[in-house]
């Protein structure tokens, strides 16, 4: 089994708010992240796939296909967007780094040819990242 | 859905690697420049990885405010701008970064109840890093 990781960057804004909480609860739990005008991050996304090396091509996965899938399924949808208002998953889910990693996994999971997803890592800042391994 | 969250922190500390069980020559051979009697320092980078279910109402594994409070209160306040050799836990233990990772893991395990502690990783320099996952295999 060989693991391959492809990185991408995207810039997006978001804010944290639960409409079922009172304004005071939202402020207490989410602090400055509750600002309804949002704030932004340069996210780094790492997609790690795993598979056996194809003996003819020497590849675990066709990187060109992986790049296209990442662009089409994730980056085109999220880059330079306000996540809460423009990405359907985040109309009803808070766009925390955790939920972002899960959303990326769900967007990519069935779209890969030959290799399988091993891990999605999303850096919200250089000092904060979340890993999702597809576990329920 | 279960996710793993990692947060990075930084602290600066000095240490000297020297074992009372070794002769002066053995210490010099084993530890080289790190045996300098006056010690030397590092800017350490600490990564703490926790895991748990993503709370549906907050979208979080745990509130970062809680994690930061424990790391700052129990770890950074203890080790930042300190000479590790002067601390009680290193009276009989060589303050290698291996031993420091284990100490920090055990401190956090005792004091952080909000999520499962997966792993502590310490970068001593840009070239050397150490991970301790409580005796388990760190998740890759």
Q: Can you tag this structure with a few keywords?
A:
heterodimer, A: 136 residues, alpha+beta, Tetrahydropterin Synthase, Chain A, 32% helix, elongated, B: 140 residues, five-stranded mixed sheet, 3 helices, 5 strands
Provide structural commentary:
The complex is a heterodimer of chains A (136) and B (140). Chain A is an alpha+beta fold. In chain A, 32% of the residues lie in helices and 32% in strands. In chain A, strands 3-1-2-4-5 form a 5-stranded mixed β-sheet. The mean pLDDT of chain A is 96. Chain B has one domain (2-11, 42-132): Tetrahydropterin Synthase, Chain A (2-Layer Sandwich). Chain B has 3 helices and 5 strands. In chain B, strands 3-1-2-4-5 form a 5-stranded mixed β-sheet. In chain B, strand 4 (116-123) and strand 5 form a beta hairpin. Chain B is elongated and about 60 Å long. The A-B interface holds A 3, 16, 18, 20-21, 29-31, 93-99, 101-102, 119, 126-133, 135-136 and B 1-9, 54, 57-61, 63-65, 139-140.
Q: What would CATH call the class of chain A?
A: Alpha Beta
User: Based on CA inertia axes, which overall geometry of chain B fits?
Assistant: elongated
The ordered string of helix (H) and strand (E) elements of chain B is EHEHEHEE
- Tally of DSSP β-strands of chain B: 5
Averaged pLDDT of chain A: 96
Tell me roughly what share of residues is in helical segments of chain A: 25-40%
Oligomeric state of the chains?
heterodimer
* Largest interface: pair, residues per side: A-B, 28 and 20 residues
Beta-strand proportion of chain B = 25-35%
For the sheet with most strands of chain A, the description reads: 5 strands, mixed
Low-confidence stretches of chain A: none
Write the layout of secondary structure elements.
The complex is a heterodimer of chains A (136) and B (140).
Chain A: E1 2-14, H1 23-30, E2 39-51, H2 63-78, E3 81-82, H3 83-86, H4 89-92, H5 97-108, E4 116-125, E5 128-132
Parallel strand pairs in A: 1-3
Antiparallel strand pairs in A: 1-2, 2-4, 4-5
Chain B: E1 2-15, H1 24-31, E2 40-53, H2 64-79, E3 82-83, H3 97-111, E4 116-123, E5 129-132
Parallel strand pairs in B: 1-3
Antiparallel strand pairs in B: 1-2, 2-4, 4-5
Helix pairs in contact in B: 2-3
């Amino acid at each position: 089994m060989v693991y391959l990781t492809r990185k991408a960057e995207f810039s997006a804004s978001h804010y944290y708010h639960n409409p079922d909480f009172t304004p005071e609860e939202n402020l207490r739990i989410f602090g400055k992240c509750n600002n309804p005008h949002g704030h932004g991050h340069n996210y780094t996304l790492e997609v790690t796939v795993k598979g056996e090396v194809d003996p003819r091509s020497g590849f675990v996965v066709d990187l060109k296909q992986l790049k296209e899938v990442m662009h089409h399924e994730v980056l085109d949808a999220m880059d330079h967007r306000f996540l809460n208002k423009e990405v359907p998953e985040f109309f009803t889910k808070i766009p925390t780094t955790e939920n972002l990693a899960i959303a990326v996994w769900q967007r990519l999971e069935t779209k890969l040819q030959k290799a399988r997803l091993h891990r999605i890592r999303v850096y919200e800042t250089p000092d904060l990242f979340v890993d999702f391994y597809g576990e329920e | 859905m279960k996710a793993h969250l990692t947060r990075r922190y930084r602290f600066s500390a000095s240490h000297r690697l020297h074992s009372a069980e070794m002769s002066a020559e053995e210490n010099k051979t084993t530890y080289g420049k790190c045996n300098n009697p006056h010690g030397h320092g590092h800017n350490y980078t600490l990564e703490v990885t926790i895991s748990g279910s993503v709370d549906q109402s907050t979208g979080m594994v745990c509130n970062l405010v809680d994690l930061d409070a424990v790391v700052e209160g129990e770890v950074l306040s203890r080790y930042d701008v300190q000479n590790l050799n002067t601390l009680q836990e290193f009276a009989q233990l060589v303050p290698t970064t291996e031993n420091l990772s284990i100490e920090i893991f055990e401190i956090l395990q005792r004091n952080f109840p909000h999520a499962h502690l997966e792993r502590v990783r310490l970068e001593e320099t840009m070239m050397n890093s150490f991970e301790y996952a409580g005796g388990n295999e760190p998740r890759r």
